[in-house]
Amino acid sequence: MLRFIFARVGGGILVVLAATTIAFFLLRAAPGGPFDGEAKMSAEVKRNLEKSLQLDKPLYVQYATYITNVVQFDLGQSIKRRQTVNELIAKQFPYSLKLGAFALTFAVLFGVDRDRKHSDFIPITRNLHPNAENFLCIEFHLTIEVISHAAFV
Known about the structure:
Shape: extended
Strand content: under 5%
Order of helices and strands: HHHHH
Helix content: 55-70%
Number of helices: 5
Number of strands: 0
Radius of gyration: 23 Å
Largest sheet: none
Distance between the termini: 43 Å
Structural class: mainly alpha
C-alpha cells in the first residue's frame, strides 16, 4: 500500500513538473514580450526592467530560477497589480473554495447514476420530479452566476 501511495505522489509530482515546464517554454516561445503592451519606453528603461526580472539571462537559468521559486512557493510579483501573486491568491481563495464546494456538491447530488439499466442524458433526473430537467437548467444558470461573480470580485 505504501508503495502505491509513493507511486501516486511521485506521478503527481512528475505531472506538475511537466505542466510547469510546458507552460514556461510555451510562454517564452510566444511572440512579443512582457512590455509590448506598455507605453513606449527607452531602450535603457527596457533593459533595466529585463534585468530586474532576470529576462536578460539565458533561458536555462530563467527556468532553473523559476522552478526553484515555484518549489519555495514564491510566485513573484504581479506587474499589473503591484502585489505578490501569493497575496492575490490568498485574497481570492475563499471564493474558489466556495465554488469548488458547490461544484463538488452539485456533482455528487446530480451526477451520480444510481440506476445503470438505462442510459438517459441526465440519468439521475428520472428519480426526481418530472420537471427535473428545468430544475437542472436553473442550477446550471446559478452555477454560471457564481462563477462570473467569483471571477470579477
